[in-house]
Records
---
Amino acid sequence: MLAVDKNFVLNMFGLKGKVALITGATGSLGSAIAKGYGYQGVKVMMTARNEAKLKALYEEFTAEGIDCAYIVGDPAVEADVARIVEATVKHYGEINILVTAAGVSKPKSILQQSTEDWQSMMDANVLGTYLSCKYVAKVMVEQGKGGKMVLVSSARSKRGMKGYTGYSTSKAAVDLLAQSLACDLGEYHINVNTFNPTVFRSDLTEWMFHDDNVYQNFLKRLPIGRLGEPADFIGIASFLASDASNFITAANIAADGGYWGN
Ligand SMILES: NC(=O)c1ccc[n+]([C@@H]2O[C@H](COP(=O)([O-])OP(=O)(O)OC[C@H]3O[C@@H](n4cnc5c(N)ncnc54)[C@H](OP(=O)(O)O)[C@@H]3O)[C@@H](O)[C@H]2O)c1
């Protein structure tokens, strides 16, 4: 008899009833994942710095029957992260999933880039991710039930590009942060992975969809034949949060339409 548990297989993608904390929840990607999780019955705590946007999402999602809440804060400020994590546990009783979707890109040649701009990318992309993982890890370890951390990286983490000294470096750090955290937290059954998208539609990238030269240049390197949409990543974010990915940790998973070259 093959050791395949029918009950496990039938339920391994199910997220219903889990509690997720999502940073950058006001962004294109974070809000899509929040809604996608919410539709699957996940209880979603959304956090970001912009209260008006959080409130609007909260109203939109609750009108759709999604169980969600929000708390304002900056993931790169340690006191904020401590408060956000504490508030999530207070509101929902536990945290099973962390998604770090907060991030920023300020492309510019190193010859023009200010050290402040470079530091702001390191703070938002690296320090913010580190602090969120650190505080959620403590909660997950105390709960003793394992957990899933889904860190948003980028295809740029593996491929430098003109103007991307700050962003690529920060996302490469996120990739190795996930690998190292996975080593720290594996014994607690906490899985830590990144998914690494190429360009998808957001406020920052909308112009690329309207500049034919830029779009066509990307298409040459995209076997899938189009750039991404935020909803394209709900699948990988759900898989990495589910029992179906229990044996996957320390991975940097390309979610990039087969993107190749620079
Ligand atoms: N769009 C792409 O093509 C693409 C490709 C690969 C990877 N990514 C990554 O995907 C993630 C989400 O990107 P997105 O395209 O959805 O961007 P977005 O729509 O601009 O959202 C960015 C999110 O991060 C927060 N944020 C922005 N600047 C921040 C800062 N300095 N400190 C802390 N939080 C900040 C924003 O919330 P508040 O301003 O309300 O705090 C917002 O929720 C980022 O990590 C990005 O690097 C994007």
Note: The chain has eight helices and seven strands.
---
Amino acid sequence: MAKKYLVKKEDQSKINNLIILGPSGSGKGTQAELLARKFNLKMLDGGEYLRKILSSKSKESKRVAEKMNKGNLAPTDIIRDWMKMQIFSRPISRVLIFSGQPRMLGEAKLALKWFQESGRGIPLVIFLKVSNREVLKRLEKRYICAKCKKVYTLDAPPKKFCKICGGKIIKRADDTPKLIKNRLAYFKIQVAQTLKFFKKKGILIEVNGEQSVVETHKEIVRKIGDYFKK
Ligand SMILES: [Zn+2]
């Protein structure tokens, strides 16, 4: 990147807690990671947490599996409890970035309340806009490591093993075109109200997620900078 710090130094020290939303395949995980590194934030990924539950043998695991295997979102109470725990248990000095949550209006309202009650103040919400067509195209190429969940973008099924942990690289079970379409439709319905809510609060930043990873990151950082100028 040409300019290393698009956000001024003094703005970096007062960066809000962040929430990044977008359909699966929008690249929110990658963008969250980049922002976490740039601003020294603690990245919290609800999807990852759910996948951890799925691979466990808890009683929750079955309940989550039933929903997610239909292409639906996970039971909301699990995500809700997890978010609350993260917001309250981490030191306030540790600024957080939530990737993919809260998605539903109820969760969003609660999360905002928790952010304030915990003394963290109001978070900023970034939404990555990506068309269904682009999502389908991207997810067709998405593979993950069965062990460490690292995401790989590949044109053909992989012949090699994960370069981080040596695990097997597989297609995610919920990454079939039919389930992706279900997920997208469900996401749109759920997230529409949530975005409206954040917009009304004046804390929503919308970004074109169809650009390259670097371009998208730049737009996010620029818009965060603009927000602080207001
Ligand atoms: Zn791996």
Note: Residues 145, 147-148, 150, 162, 164-165, 167 surround zinc ion (CB under 6 Å).
---
Amino acid sequence: MSDRDLAARRLLVVTEEELQHLVLDIHDGPVQNLFAALSQLSLLRARMAALSEAPIECAPALTRAIGLLELSLNDIRSLIGAFHAPEFAGRGLAEIIEDLAVQHETLTGGAVALEIVNPLPVAPLTVKIALYRILQEALSNIHRHAGVNAAAVRAWAEGERLCLEVADAGRGFQPPPLSGPEATERHEHIGLRGMRERAALVNGEICVDSRPGRGTRVRAEIPLNG
Ligand SMILES: Nc1ncnc2c1ncn2[C@@H]1O[C@H](COP(=O)(O)OP(=O)(O)OP(=O)(O)O)[C@@H](O)[C@H]1O
Ligand SMILES: [Mg+2]
């Protein structure tokens, strides 16, 4: 393996570690402070309600502030929940995929039809992480953009490659070219680019097959040895 390949592998694991640190930092820092602020404001509102001469504009303003804080906390909670990765090392790929599908159903109320063709071979950590993040983004895109709440996920091994397909029968889109001089991915859309980069880090490929009105099929193919 070349130095460059080694560096890319390390990057994949380091990036995931950094992400987990970030999740914990957000949870332990700003989230705790927001909670504290919320309880202070709730206390203040209760005290004010007991006062007969409190200025009348204060109560609605406090209620608005409390509502905003609650909204932010819920948003942050679901964001860091989605990015808090499960423990990868001790679990097989099939279990990781199954759990993510169930988690997606619980979070979105959508349905994921999952087919794991034959027992999947043992995959290295880097491959498990890459496939997990690719599946997470593909499911999230279906929920956010496809206009349907059903997804079909299929995983199988083909020779020395692991394949993962995530399909929906939703509104579809014209996928931008993913590579080459014609690549036109817009900067604000990092999902498709991220999927491709994660696959590339383990020498794999992503293919996005979609057309307006014809649904979307994302397929990842990753060599078993990463
Ligand atoms: N399953 C899908 N069905 C319909 N449209 C899709 C689907 N997946 C992606 N798209 C379209 O492709 C665009 C780019 O997707 P991409 O994941 O790169 O960015 P995004 O989801 O908009 O933002 P983010 O950077 O948060 O992922 C989306 O904005 C959407 O228009
Ligand atoms: Mg996306």
Note: The chain has a mean pLDDT of 87.
---
Amino acid sequence: MDMRPIARPRPVAGPVTTGAKGGGIPRYLTHHYWWAYVHPNAVRVFERQWLVNLILWGCYRQLRDAALAAIGETAPGRSLQVACVYGDLTPELAHRVDASDGSLDVVDVLPVQLENLGHKLPVDAPVRLLNSNATDLPAPDASYDRALLFFLLHEQPADVRRRTLEEVMRVVRPGGSIVIVDFSRPGLLHPLRWLWLPILGVLEPFARDLWRDGLEAWMPESARRSMRSTSYFGGLYQRLVITR
Ligand SMILES: C[S@@+](CC[C@H](N)C(=O)[O-])C[C@H]1O[C@@H](n2cnc3c(N)ncnc32)[C@H](O)[C@@H]1O
């Protein structure tokens, strides 16, 4: 296991746990997403909220707020965010967690993404940045009150997606919540279904099966029973809330 500390240019927002559990950087990231997440220039280019907003057709704020609303005004106890995101979602979440005397762990397999997130958080935020694969979360069973996955699942190959969901179900306690915001398949009359999805399908090859089968198909049976779904932007996006 790689135990190098994550270098940070200023004091850390909470302790940083290091060592990428789960076998290093996955090939699908270096192969398909080097331009978006892996290369240091990717962070420089994409860490602009207006750009992320543009890519999401002006829906970043709406989707961010939908995620936060599902988490609630207060977030006491232990929260988990699986994978970093560009923009101010995590600082907003960290603020809620802090105001509720809770704590937040953010897990990402790319140190460069965790470093970038560290720059966006107040130095005294109750946040740990954990370098690990989502398929092998560094946490005991039932140890979190809630978990958030924001536009992660469509980027993962099917086996990784399935394993990530199993891991999230494992680490969230019974009665806790899992909030997922991601793509869904818009209706036949949605113009972006015919314009945008074919382009996105090239850039994001693993998203195609998600559009075909829906996120539900990837959920463990126990998650499907309690799942509540809300659509956004004519069905191009969705929020799922699962009570564990
Ligand atoms: C959450 S997704 C997409 C976020 C969205 N495009 C945005 O920035 O608003 C991007 C992050 O997922 C992380 N990621 C992808 N696969 C992962 C895995 N198996 N385990 C942990 N992190 C992963 C990447 O390293 C990257 O930081």
Note: Residues 16-243 form a domain with the Rossmann fold fold (CATH 3.40.50.150).
